[in-house]
Design goal:
This is Trehalose synthase. The protein is of the alpha/beta class. It has 24 helices and 30 strands. It is globular, with a radius of gyration of 29 Å. The termini are far apart.
């Protein structure tokens, strides 16, 4: 190839680079060092690198890079082309490289971004500040789907099922106006010429294309149209924190162009391979143990230990780093890489501060595809709290949580989504301050990890004290409930890490049960209470999930709190009491500001599946598969025992939606009444003003100011009262936020219950597992 180095990179030039594996220099500066064949170099004095003096630091850290300096005229001629078996799946086969590039997310992102660049659409919407109330006004009651668990008609895809007008008619009757599809794009990995299955429920994305298992782009677009016809919208997922081991990762391993810049991956030189474990033939990488992690950190190759090891399991995941087997690159060099993965080995972490900005380009392109091509209204940001990582002081774990780069990256992602008219929500299980600070510039909404374990604890113990503490702490630290997605069960475990109390505030003092206790001890106590009440001898059908939480459904959690120790113990006569407690938890989530989200497992009252039906899936410790049983929302396949993806059917306590909606006493019908009140009074966009003390430890009271005003011109005051016990309670509701002399009205039937006295209180009786939505009507004549 004879071409001017200063010439622009034409398509022909790019094609030649792909075939040779060489990144041709522009302006004389190559992308990466290459071995120059004999006889092709120019003047030796111009091309030979100068060996600098070895400093003390370089002796201490052998991986320390040499001083950056211009290296012009390094290439004196072109590399010889190499040819190999066209069937070979390695860096020396141009056909294989070309095949991977065609499938890569980075390539798609570059194409997608150019279609929007320079268009008026990029300037029509405000984007700098998150806007929770705008997001809530778009859709505030969500159905959260899980693609591999939905039972469909014979031959019907997941997306076709979600585009069914009959389903949307049922959703509309219940009050659901948004569907979060869950991950439906290609996921898993590539080995050789073959795709490998997902290792984390399709959260290990490897392509922007819809996975054929779930449907295609045309069906997805039809689903968005049907949703709009029923007043709803579609919410998709992006994963800013990691990908799967797809084409992008394989190209990165082969040191192809910008691709290594997508990931936190470090090339380990051959002279240091003795430090690395051997990778068995049937594997492409292995996790590093703590000793190897430490050895590589001491030599300066990686930053070493991070603040915690998520999904820690001895012999499976002992650190956040794994090492690849030897891989032949596009330049013929064999390399081994150590790469970061916060989650599973098959989920390499994206690098948000690489000079190529390849990771950022990949993620933004994926987001634009969902919003622009597929027609979604919003995106869930998965694993977005782990986008920055930095070496800490000697001997301290690396800084990997609450990092400013995570805030900056989230600002970029969320700003771009708002710029094209959408909104985002994040699942950020960190401290309340992290949720507040990230939400100040990033996602419009955050998943409610603050109160989720607390309201389960309240039901399990009949005591709302910890729940009242979490609600108040959230308000005090600036995270209003309107900015949260209050979810019931989703595909993940009941998370009980209680990161806020177990980490940053572990030494802070809190009053609990009349005693002062430190945050760390409080977190341990709540975890112990939940584990004892919901698993083991209390209920063998709920399982602990590593150190993160408990694998269960909402119905199986309730069953455990009501004394059912095995699945066989749960008989038909027990269903009404489980249903009542289920509706109580729904009321907690729905009768406060913010988004209310529920799953198919909630709508049908699904229990966990017996462990023996998912033995292979839980073999390596991922017990969450017991809670992901297949379910049939419309009752279209009553005799089918597994979903199309192979998930076994879970036992449903409530039955399919059409049957439920024919009975006014069913879970779905009563849920619809609960949501009707929510919509009528607009509590989704209200402001929480008080979580007062209660007359009985099993009661919870939340006081809100609605956006509407009464005849006096003041905001309407609304009160949510809940009974987390299985017995009726009599008590007094008292709060300084209640206007004197106001009449207390039950919003469900508009009956008057009494008057607020001079102590800002009134008496109330509430049934077992009861919930009351109360509205205060000021007496204008008395000037109340």
């Amino acid at each position: 190839m004879d071409m001017d180095d200063d010439a622009p990179r034409t398509d022909e030039r790019i094609a030649d680079e792909q075939l040779t594996g060489e990144r041709l220099p522009v302006g004389g500066i190559p992308e990466r060092d290459v071995d120059v064949p004999d006889g092709t170099a120019g003047d030796e004095d111009d091309t030979a690198p100068v060996a600098p003096d070895i400093t003390y630091d370089e002796q201490l850290y052998p991986a320390r890079p040499r001083r950056l300096r211009p290296r012009v005229n390094l290439r004196g001629g072109s590399l010889q082309r190499r040819f190999s078996d066209p069937r070979a799946a390695n860096g020396e086969n141009p056909a294989y490289i070309e095949w991977l590039v065609r499938q890569s997310m980075l390539k798609d992102a570059d194409v997608l971004s150019r279609t929007l660049s320079g268009t008026p659409a990029m300037w029509r919407n405000p984007y700098a500040r998150p806007d929770a109330r705008r997001a809530v006004s778009t859709s505030d009651v969500w159905f959260t789907a899980y693609p591999i668990s939905l039972i469909t008609r014979d031959g019907e895809s997941f997306l076709t099922a979600l585009a069914d007008p009959q389903l949307w008619t049922a959703f509309e009757r219940i009050g659901i106006n948004g569907v979060h599809t869950g991950p439906v794009k290609r996921a898993g990995g590539i080995r050789g010429w073959q795709e490998t299955p997902s290792v984390d429920g399709h959260f290990d994305r490897i392509g922007t294309q819809i996975d054929p298992t779930f449907g295609d782009e045309e069906t997805f677009q039809r689903m968005t149209d049907v949703a709009e016809e029923h007043g709803g919208s579609i919410i998709d997922d992006i994963v800013p924190g990691h990908t799967g081991k797809g084409a992008d990762f394989r190209l990165a391993e082969m040191a192809f162009k910008d691709y290594p810049g997508i990931y936190h991956m470090v090339e380990i030189p051959p002279e240091e391979w003795h430090l690395l474990p051997t990778v068995p033939e049937h594997r492409d990488s292995v996790n590093l143990d703590a000793a190897t992690e430490s050895a590589l950190a001491e030599r300066g190759y990686i930053i070493g230990e991070l603040q915690r090891v998520i999904f820690h399991q001895p012999g499976v995941k002992e650190t956040n780093w794994s090492v690849t087997a030897p891989v032949v690159g596009v330049d013929g060099t064999t390399r081994r890489w150590v790469y970061l993965h916060y989650f599973k080995e098959g989920q390499p972490s994206v690098n948000w501060l690489d000079p190529t900005f390849a990771g950022m380009r990949l993620v933004i392109g994926d987001a634009l595809h969902s919003l622009g091509d597929l027609g979604t209204s919003a995106l869930r940001l998965d694993a977005n709290g782990f986008l920055g990582v930095e070496k800490s002081a000697e001997g301290a774990p690396g800084w990997s949580e609450g990092h400013p780069l995570s805030h900056a990256a989230n600002h970029v992602i969320a700003g771009m989504v708002r710029k094209v008219g959408g909104f985002t929500f994040q699942e950020l299980n960190l401290t309340i301050e992290d949720i507040r600070d990230t939400g100040a510039v990033g996602a419009d909404l955050s998943y409610d990890f603050i109160n989720r374990p607390a309201y389960h604890h309240a039901l399990a113990t009949g005591d709302t004290e910890f729940l009242r503490l979490t609600l108040r702490t959230s308000l005090e630290l600036g995270v209003e409930p309107v900015s949260l997605v209050h979810g019931m069960q989703n595909h993940d475990e009941l998370t009980y890490e209680l990161v806020h109390w177990a980490t940053l505030h572990q030494d802070d003092l809190y009053t609990f049960h009349g005693e002062e206790t430190r945050g760390g001890a409080l977190a341990e106590r709540i975890r112990a209470d939940l584990t004892e009440a919901l698993t083991g001898d209390a209920a063998d059908y709920n399982l602990v999930f590593t150190t993160n939480g408990i694998a269960c459904t909402t119905a199986s959690l309730i069953a455990a709190t009501q004394g059912h120790t095995t699945l066989d113990d749960i008989a038909d006569e027990h269903v009404p009491q489980i249903r009542d407690a289920h509706l109580l938890l729904a009321a907690f989530n729905a009768w406060q500001p913010g988004v209310f989200a529920m799953s198919g497992w909630d709508l049908l009252g699904s229990l966990t599946v017996p462990q023996e039906l998912v033995t292979d899936l839980i073999a390596e410790g991922d017990t969450r598969w017991i809670e992901r049983g297949a379910h049939d929302l419309l009752g279209v396949a009553p005799d089918t025992e597994r979903s199309a993806s192979g998930m076994p059917r879970a036992r449903s306590l409530y039955g399919p939606l059409p049957e439920q909606l024919e009975s006014p006493d069913s879970f779905a019908s009563r849920l619809g009444e609960l949501l009707r009140v929510r919509t009528e009074y607009g509590i989704a966009s209200a402001r929480q003003v008080d979580v007062p003390e209660v007359a009985h430890r099993g009661m919870l009271v939340m006081v809100h100011e609605l956006e509407t005003t009464d005849e006096s011109g003041e905001p309407v005051v609304q009160i949510t009262v809940l009974n987390m016990t299985d017995t009726a309670l009599d008590g007094t509701i008292r709060s300084e936020s209640l206007p004197h002399g106001a009449t207390v009205v039950d919003a469900t039937d508009h009956s008057e219950l009494g008057t607020v006295d001079d102590l800002c209180s009134f008496p109330l009786r509430i049934d077992a597992y009861g919930s009351r939505f109360l509205v205060l009507r000021r007496n204008v004549e008395q000037g109340a």
